[in-house]
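Work Package 3 (structural annotation) set out to generate three-dimensional models for the target panel prioritized at the project kickoff. During this period the team completed the workflow that converts sequence records into discrete structure tokens, so that structures can be stored uniformly alongside our sequence database. As a representative example, we reproduce one entry of 468 residues exactly as it appears in the project archive.
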Amino acid sequence: MLKLKKLQILGFKSFCDRTELKFHGEGIAAVVGPNGCGKSNISDAISWVLGEQSVKSLRGVRMEDVIFAGTRDRKPTGMAEVSLTLIDPGVYDGADASGEPEIDVRNEMPGEDDWDEAALRTAKSAEAEAATVEAQPGKKFDKDGNLITLQSDEPEEPGDNPRAAEAPEEQSAEGVTAEGEAGAEAGASAENVVLKIRRRKFGNPQLRAGEIVVTRRLFRTGESEYLLNGKLCRLRDIQDIFMGTGLGPESYAIIEQGRIGQILSSKPYDRRAIIEEAAGITKYKTRKRLAESRLEAAKLNLARINDIFDEVTRQMNSLKRQANKAERYAILRDEMREKLRIVLAGKFAQLAKEATEIEAELQEISKTMRLKSEVVEQLDAAHSERTQRGYALEDEANQNRERISAITLENDRSSARKATNEERCAELLARTVAAEAELTRTVAQLESLTQEREANRAILESAATDVA
């Protein structure tokens, strides 16, 4: 039988500051307060630290909702941490759990005049941030000592923590693995910046005999971890400890409003799980189920081994035949190589003789080719000379063609000018004839006008005489 001794909450729901609740003595401990003061958050914190994975049971939508979301005067925290301290009265060697409660006496309390709530709130906020930074895994520092924040591409699910499951139990409170330090030095050489992985400080709680401290942390980056007595562990390790005590996955020790009626009205099969948990046989049934699953896996492996054995047995005869063929092949290959050496030696001698004869023929052909090359060079020289002469004649012919084209063009132009002049002469002749006819008409008109003038003059003189 385990008894609850202490509950520490930091950044969980409405508990933004580190809050410690101590439970002394035996009997019933009641948490009293008005609506909205956080009474239910205490039971949620206990359920959460014991491994509750249902967000709906924690009155949230996402697991990240359990982290303090901030207020108007306080910014959000980056981590939610709950530590639960349990003791076994039969083994615990500390203060008597059934004795008087321990009183925390503080001799130095601020007076009413010196009370500064804003400063106290700032100090508490700084303390919470320092605790978050101290517990945050995967941090790096640059050469100036500034913290470098790393964002995870694939955040871990809060329900399971592979990193915590793979962490060695012998990990010290101040140490990190040698591979991590080597990786940090390699990263520093690649980036030309001195990067050091910050050493995790899990603390070294001074625990008494029969005392168990269970801690659960959830970071806003999505990482989650479980600690048992200050050491990283798996969720399964914690569930194995509390299995059969009423604090396991089928917990009946924490019942909210409406759960009692649901239990009473549930089906007998559903109610059986709670009864078995209360009877303490869930642990054995779980062990039985795990043993059966391991036995089933062993049976499957055995069946697979038998299949492989049968298959190998069927392949043995074929492999034997192939081995005999391979041995015969090796013998025949050696004989073939020996005979092939003899054949190749004779072939080589024959090829050497043929090469000598061919070399003599090549020398004769080379002499003939040199003579013919000289003749070809002479012919090339004559051909080059005649080619140059042909080019000269072709240039002269081109010049003659250009002169003929120029003369033909000039002749065409002269013919065109002659035709134009003839047309102009005909036109001028026609204009001359028209001008002579016009002149004849003008002379006749002049004579008629002269006669008319004489007649008018006679009339004028007659009129002047009459006037006189």
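The longest helix spans residues 282-467.
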